[in-house]
Design brief:
By secondary structure, the chain is mainly β. It has strands at 3-7, 19-23, 39-42, 46-50, 53-57, 64-70, 81-89, 99-107, 115-124, 130-140, 143-151, 157-165, 170-176, 187-193, 202-203, 215-223, 232-241, 250-254, 257-263, 270-274, 283-284, 290-292, 295-301, 308-312. The chain is built from no helices and 24 strands. The strands form 4 sheets. Strands 2, 4, 5, 7, 12, 13, 14, 15 and 17 form a 9-stranded mixed sheet that branches. Strands 3-6-16-8-9-10-11 form a 7-stranded antiparallel sheet, with no helix packed on it. The structure holds calcium ion (2 copies).
Length: 313
Amino acid sequence: MRIAFGFLCLGMALVVPARAQTDDFNDNQRDPAMWGVDQRLDGNGVFTESNQRVEFTVTSSVDAHSTFRPWVGGLPVDLPWQATLRVQNNTVPPKHGANASIGLALLGPGTELNAITVELVADPFIDGVMYRYIYSVMETESGSAGEASSEHEGMVAAYVRLAYDPAAKVVSVSYSRETSGNPSSFQPLATYGIAGSGGADGSRDWGVSAVKPFTLGIYAYSEDMQIAAGTLWADDFVLEVDEPEPPTLSIRRENQNVKISWEASAVGYALETRSTVASGRWLHVSATPAVSNGAQEVLLPIQPQAQYFRLVK
Ligand SMILES: [Ca+2]
Ligand SMILES: [Ca+2]
């Protein structure tokens, strides 16, 4: 619930900034308020919060292993957001065909087969040279819709980012080669359209909606190799959701009434009142706002006692 306060006497409004949620994993235990139970999409790889980060381990040296740790809140389809994760990959795949990776995955509603991933991969190609690269793919139920990668010799650490534009319904993939602190320089890697168009590297209609939102999570993968503790890990997750500025309540006396108003563009808010500022039950103001000059306005008779008002969404 998001709240905008307006005080009858003070005419003051509290402003809620763009919402940033972070996890530095420094407490070494999965926080169920942030992260859901790990989903093993393939095999038996395990995420463990230890050494103040999220490590991925695999004990089997054969087959594919992929595990997904979902962000509990889900992600809105009607607001801009971006998710950033620091990743490190010191694994050394022992042969051609073996590989290991870690990064972010965005899943469409209903099936994990609709996914956009960005990962830091270690992969020895057929010539025996160890390649490390940022890899991104848009997966659909009918296979890959597009992919992009960027090789960097010797790279073991990076930041990976997924960012969403709700107007274009496009997910942009980028990464930073900075390896600590707050990275400022991100290089674009790919764009994907999730409503069937708009992506430079792939577009499919995932059927996302307000009632069927995205799921985001940490994702790790390995194939035909063990992953020892401390070799493949993620840290410093940041999710920024660009929520619109909350409306400002204005209050003005008009004869024996007060006119309470807020921006007409702020839809979905309800006006509430109570007679003490710090306690008591908030009561819904039943008067329907009239729209005038770009504002929603409610006219109420002045009461003998103080009244406090707020907007609630
Ligand atoms: Ca940490
Ligand atoms: Ca934790």
